[in-house]
Give the backbone structure.
Amino acid sequence: MTMRAPACDLPIVFEQASCRVRDATILDRVSLALAAGAPTVLIGPNGAGKTTFIRLAMGLTAPTAGRVTWGGREQAAAVHRAIVFQRPAMLRRSAAANIRYALAAAGVPRAQRRPRASELIALVGLAGLEERPARKLSGGEQQRLALARALAKDPQVLFLDEPTASLDPAATKAIEDVIRAVAARGIKVVMSTHDLGEARRLAGEIVLLHRGRVIESGASEAFFSAPRTEEGRRFIGGELLI
């Protein structure tokens, strides 16, 4: 009997993918591949299409034109993908129970849930807060708990929509440390941010979006040292893209 290797969702490939909502074009003929490796960070002004890009890549939204494929497949259940939204909802139970719930939903056997929850609590730096009601955690702690819940799926790809928005510098650093630890485990991280400093610290690849289009993409170091486009130069310089 031969064992089939688990299907891989990477690369995630956008092929002339567009998304329209009524008369508004949110994403406009995007062609891009998200491959294994260091984190891909989406930057761009408000309304650039970052959240919609993440939703299409996760499979939560379908393109209205073009297509998105996962590991060469156009139909791929999101069993190997996880997402953390900007304002995650907390269940009315303890931090550890939130994670155990996610583990149960992921099909982890009951006997493995408590030790696995403890591992995830430690990974996101919440040791000692296991029994704290999740809704009484600080904003940064809740975001780290949301990361632990997402990791309960043991994903190949983790999508983060502005995970440090509205957090103070200490909470932001704690989230960034978790993202580095996740990436070091071989999980592909795709995240959006408004913080160019954060993008410099975390990104292996940068994607600059503006008005629903990919203006520039490539290695982070090259982008920040010598952007190829006028929009890239202006955005790094702190100018508004209109």
